[in-house]
């Protein structure tokens, strides 16, 4: 028998318009409890928050701190105010989430406690170009980074039960990167995610979004970008040594092994401290990394020899081989070797 939990809607809001009033009023009529976080909005938006306060509890940030900070303020307030069990569903303030969809993901989270429920938008041709591109790129990068297949990684409509509040509060991030970080660490915490299709609503070509394409994209992708930079630097070392040794000796296996040993030592040091910020025991991490390096080296050498034997120039064969092994190495390091990185 499913225990009926209190349904709480959490809405972070920065400089909202009247659509927030309409949304909150409708949700109140659906007998949902509503928490709105005013994330340092400008003074001219105060009448909006005054209007919604008749149906919702309004929390205030004196200065704009970002969507992630607003969500965590709301989650902390709910944790300290309401008795368990409860379900929290986060929704955007711009009217892009339909009340019936908010209720749907909330009820699904009530059924599947311990699971993160995502309201997944079907991004069609009618969606704004930046939404199609942003979601498509993030979907591919996210799957490469985690091995998890999530269609809409950028949805703000999410629901979870009270048992996940501590996890949600522990995730780093103050702005839009927070929502991506929540997804990036799900597998490490053995938390499942399930998507439910929702109606896609874009108002005025999504002009009300406060997402900053350059600043917030960098925050979302920075861990993956750091890994790519570390891998590229190690590749340059590996590639340079390999080509030099091949020119001197003409021996494929010896050249590849020696170059790999040097580049692997550099890569381990960079990934442990710079990319993943791991607090895991260095010896344990080193052993795991060594085993990975052995596996990568074996596959790397075999693929390289096959490509060269097939007639591909060794410089091109090396580039192709390293590209394939990059994605394999990222996944293993992220999920196994440095999984005790800062959450």
Defining traits:
343 residues, alpha/beta, Spore Coat Polysaccharide Biosynthesis Protein SpsA, Chain A, 2 domains, seven-stranded mixed sheet, 7 strands, elongated
Structural account:
This protein is of the alpha/beta class. The protein has eleven helices and seven strands. The chain has two domains: 6-211, Alpha-Beta Complex (Spore Coat Polysaccharide Biosynthesis Protein SpsA, Chain A); 223-337, no CATH class. The chain has a seven-stranded mixed beta sheet, with helices on both faces. The chain has helices at 18-29, 46-52, 67-81, 99-111, 129-146, 165-170, 177-184, 213-249, 252-275, 282-309, 314-337, and strands at residues 6-13, 33-39, 57-61, 86-90, 115-121, 158-161, 192-198. Helix 10 (282-309) packs antiparallel against helix 11. Helix content is 56%, strand content 13%. The mean pLDDT is 82. Helix 2 (46-52) links the parallel strand 2 and strand 3 (57-61).
């Amino acid at each position: 028998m499913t225990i009926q939990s209190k349904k709480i809607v959490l809405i972070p809001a920065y400089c909202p318009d009247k659509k927030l009033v309409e949304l909150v009023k409708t949700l109140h009529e659906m007998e949902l409890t509503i928490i709105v976080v005013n994330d340092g909005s400008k003074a001219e938006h105060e009448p909006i928050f005054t209007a919604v306060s008749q149906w919702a509890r309004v929390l205030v940030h004196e200065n704009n701190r970002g969507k992630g900070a607003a969500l965590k303020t709301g989650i902390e307030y709910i944790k300290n105010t309401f008795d368990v069990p409860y379900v929290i569903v986060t929704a955007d303030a711009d009217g892009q989430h339909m009340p019936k969809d908010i209720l749907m993901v909330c009820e699904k989270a009530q059924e599947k406690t311990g699971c993160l429920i995502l309201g997944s938008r079907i991004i069609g041709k009618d969606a704004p170009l930046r939404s199609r591109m942003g979601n498509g790129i993030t979907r591919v990068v996210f799957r490469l980074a985690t091995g998890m297949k999530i269609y809409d990684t950028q949805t703000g409509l999410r629901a979870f039960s009270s048992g996940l509040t501590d996890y949600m509060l522990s995730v780093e991030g103050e702005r839009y990167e927070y929502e991506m970080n929540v997804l990036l660490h799900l597998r490490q915490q053995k938390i499942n995610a399930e998507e439910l299709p929702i109606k896609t609503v874009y108002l005025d070509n999504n002009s009300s979004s406060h997402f900053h394409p350059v600043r917030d994209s960098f925050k979302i992708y920075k861990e993956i970008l750091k890994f790519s930079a570390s891998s590229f630097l190690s590749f340059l070392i590996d590639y340079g040594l390999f080509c030099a040794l091949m020119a001197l000796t003409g021996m494929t296996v010896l050249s590849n092994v020696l170059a790999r040993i040097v580049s692997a030592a550099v890569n381990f040091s960079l990934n442990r401290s710079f990319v993943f910020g791991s607090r895991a025991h260095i010896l344990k991490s080193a052993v795991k990394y060594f085993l990975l390096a052995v596996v990568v080296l074996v596959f790397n050498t075999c693929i390289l020899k096959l490509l060269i034997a097939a007639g591909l120039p060794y410089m091109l064969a090396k580039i192709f081989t390293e590209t394939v092994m990059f994605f394999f190495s990222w996944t293993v390091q992220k999920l196994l070797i440095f999984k005790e990185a800062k959450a």
